[in-house]
Specification:
The structure is a homodimer of 229-residue chains. In chain A, helix 6 (157-168) crosses helix 7 (176-184) and helix 6 (157-168) packs across helix 8 (193-206). The longest helix of chain A has 17 residues, at 108-124. The radius of gyration of chain A is 20 Å and the shape is elongated. In chain A, a hairpin with a 4-residue loop joins strand 7 (137-140) and strand 8 (145-148). In chain A, 42% of the residues lie in helices and 21% in strands. Chain A is built from 8 helices and 12 strands. Chain A binds chain B through residues 25, 75, 94-95, 97-101, 106-110, 112-114, 116-118, 120-121, 126-127, 169, 171-174, 177-178, 181-182, 185, 188, 217-220, 223, 225, 228-229, and chain B through 1-2, 5, 40-41, 44, 47, 49, 68, 71-74, 124-127, 129, 131, 133, 135-138, 140, 142-144, 147, 149-152, 156-157, 160. Chain A binds a DNA duplex (30 and 30 nucleotides) through helix 6 and helix 8.
Chain lengths: 229, 229
DNA sequence: CAGCCTTCTTAGCGGGTTCTTAGGAACGCC
DNA sequence: GGCGTTCCTAAGAACCCGCTAAGAAGGCTG
């Protein structure tokens, strides 16, 4: 997956700088704006993949910015930041079309987790295009073609479905039962050893490269993601 | 927003045809299935945006279909149709993970209204991102990932469950008995030495940082919180 | 109909995980 | 400060989980 671009909008210099640094550290391509007007302009010009938006700002506040975007038909995911923790604020934020909501003070790690959760959800939503990518792994569902590092990877039908389902749920841990149901159409409590065999198969094909994308979560299941140390 | 896709599942031909026609007329992209098995297959293959699901069907009934989907981790919104109007049915339907409930006979307009309401609600609700945080400790349950100060912390299944339960009860002191019950599924008066061993394990991993988050309450049990001295 | 690809089962190995035990350390009460 | 109680830790044994190899069974294609 190509690098995700995030726009951070906050009028407080210190906080904004910190957010930008933290997200950059996580590997995102981060830009920032100090106020609502600038933010709207930047969204129009660079259409980021996600916006982290402070609610309390002078002039045009976060809610207003989001509302303007939505009214203009822009569906870029928004995560609101606010000092307040009232339920009514949260409701308002979500009604306006926000995707998540974080009350100050919060741990930077929590912001990162929520950013990932929102991007994960957006990525796997069914109306996104019919090609999935993760790092240098590309699956073109229309052409029914899978490539890793530019080289074509030949997969049997079941292998293909397994990779596809894992890819559609990037970052999410899937149990053997879930895989049995969604890839094989079996009952969740059927013998899961087929799954293990097939994970072995696709590992030898898809993960014959670095970085490894298929990970075992012992006692739980499997997941696909780029492992950040 | 692209056209929304709805799957109608009903074994009665006449009703099903009518529903399909009505929803198509409203501008939805409608497909249909005559029974539960077919429905499950179609959901897997085409992942619709919403499912209208008759409860009373031979073989695999509506509740069973919904349960199978939810167990497989599929969160597609479901509206149940039923001939019965009992409160217990409604409760069962919602418990299983249905989003709305309609008793026959109903006006087509009512179905349309509920379809729109459910879609609107789903669009604006954020991921109920199951993440818990305490200071710089973050647990992302979907990704099954735990980080402290941004670094990933590897936990065995039992360790993970223990941290999760402590984190879900932040600030509350949990007795060894409670932990035995909720993390191990043992009786509360079983030998609590396992708990001590595991608290030791997770201390070395998640409390290898400052501030310490896991605290012993002598004579009572353990708790997780940021210690303000 | 023969050969290949694919699917799935089985069995064994290796290593992570769980749990027990026991000794020593820390705490708190008197 | 002494003493009993509670808690911590190290170490090891048994266990279970997941990986892999190998082969049987089924299906598709030439």
């Amino acid at each position: 997956m190509s690098q995700r671009r995030i726009l951070v909008v906050d009028d407080e210099d210190n906080l904004r700088t910190m957010l930008v640094a933290a997200l950059k550290y996580e590997g995102y391509d981060v830009s920032f704006a100090p106020d609502g007007q600038t933010a709207l302009k930047m969204v129009r010009e660079s259409s980021p993949d996600l916006i982290v938006l402070d609610v309390m700002m002078p002039d045009l506040d976060g809610f207003a910015v989001c509302k303007r975007l939505r009214d203009a038909g822009n569906r870029t995911p928004v995560i609101f930041l606010t000092a307040r923790d009232s339920a009514s604020d949260k409701v308002q934020g979500l009604q306006i079309g926000g995707d998540d909501y974080l009350s100050k003070p919060f741990a930077l790690e929590e912001l990162v987790a929520r950013v990932e959760a929102v991007l994960r959800r957006v990525d796997s939503s069914p109306d996104s295009a019919e090609t999935w990518t993760l790092a240098d792994l590309v699956m073109d569902d229309v052409a029914h073609r899978v490539t890793r590092a530019g080289e074509e990877v030949h997969l049997s039908p079941t292998e293909y479905n397994l990779v596809k389902f894992l890819l559609q749920n990037t970052g999410r841990v899937l149990s053997r039962g879930q895989l049995l149901q969604n890839v094989w159409g079996y009952a969740p409590d059927d013998d899961p050893s087929v799954v293990e065999t097939y994970v072995g198969y696709i590992r030898r094909k898809v993960d014959a490269y670095e970085p490894k994308l298929i990970h075992t979560v012992r006692g739980v299941g499997y997941t696909m993601r780029v492992q950040q140390a």
